[in-house]
Design brief:
about 400 residues; alpha+beta; Resuscitation-promoting factor rpfb fold; 4 domains; 4-stranded antiparallel β-sheet; 11 helices; 21 strands
Amino acid sequence: MFDKYFSETFKRGLKRKICRTKDKALRFFSRSFMKTRIKTGELKRQIVQIPRSIANGRTWLKAVITDHYNGFKANAGEVIHAGKAEVRQAMSTTKGKGKVIGVAAPAAGILLVCIFFVATAPYGITADGEKVEQPWVVKAGKEEVVVVEDKQDGQKVIEKVKEHYCSREAEVKEVVIEPGVDVDTKELERFEDPVKVSDVDKAVETIVKANEGEDPVMVVSTVEEVVNEKEISYDTEVKKSSKYEEGTVKVAEEGEKGVKEVTSIVKKENGEVIDSKVIGEKVTKKPEAKVVIKGTKISKTGAKVASYALQFVGNPYVWGGTSLTNGADCSGFTLSVYSHFGISLPHSAAAQRSYGKAVSYGDARPGDLFFYPHHVAIYIGGGQIVHASTSSTGIIVGNAGYRPISCIRRLL
């Protein structure tokens, strides 16, 4: 019944070589299975471990051969069951015991081959030290990228890599990976070190890091519809008021920025934006203008008059003129300066002497009018005056005592 499993040459060798001693049997098996590279001592230990009873031996051989030797396609139960009756009959006589060796020895040889293939079978190993008999690999094109425990983990890795490069707040329109990715069984080589098997998160981390270089293992292209909020600047509205003096600025109402939603189509490669196009805008909150009030009321103080008059130093002197920029004579200059503060004066130095009240030189303040023979000026303090002097000098600042002072008048 073992004819289909063992050649005639092998069986004849058993009858000649085994005889009745275990040592000769061991040497024969060692030579017969030399290709398995199992030493005689190892072979001996395996045979000694074979259960002595027929029932236990049948169960043990069937479990080992069926569960651990993928290369042995036949059902071990078929072999052992077919020889069960013959083995029992042979064990009942002394002569038959020799025949039992003819049955047990080939079975032991098969067991040793199984042990060899199991012991040297390649495998993967996880970071926790767990053995993975058949790992899977995630490929980008033909290139192997990461090794995982099973096909399901490989598919999870691909999905998580896609998620990594997509914005959470965006609507993903398209995701394309180039070169194409796939999950396949990992081809293992016998006698090589176990391959390292990554969990899903570690595998994703490895791929993302590999994509950061100049030569990424894959390019994940995404097209997303992104909605962002952007601020809308507010305008400033200026209102004039005579309630406040000129130069006064007050904020009546604080401005408030508006908000708008901007919808864009964004294209990325490995998370980097390569193109963005706005396809729509929607105002969700209108901006509110800032209201500023500027005072127009003119402050009627002598210092203000003096300060205003000094702005026109350097402009020309023109006989009979009243323009502070294009030219004025002495009384025309004082007339136009005080006109700015709402006080009207005649266009005559002699006539202006009758306006205001007289003050002494010791009590003079900026803005007072200093009169000289046929001339008038504005006092600016510190013994200085500003006046439209002559056609050759124009409007200048000078010493208040450059000529005898006829009188001083204060209008404010």
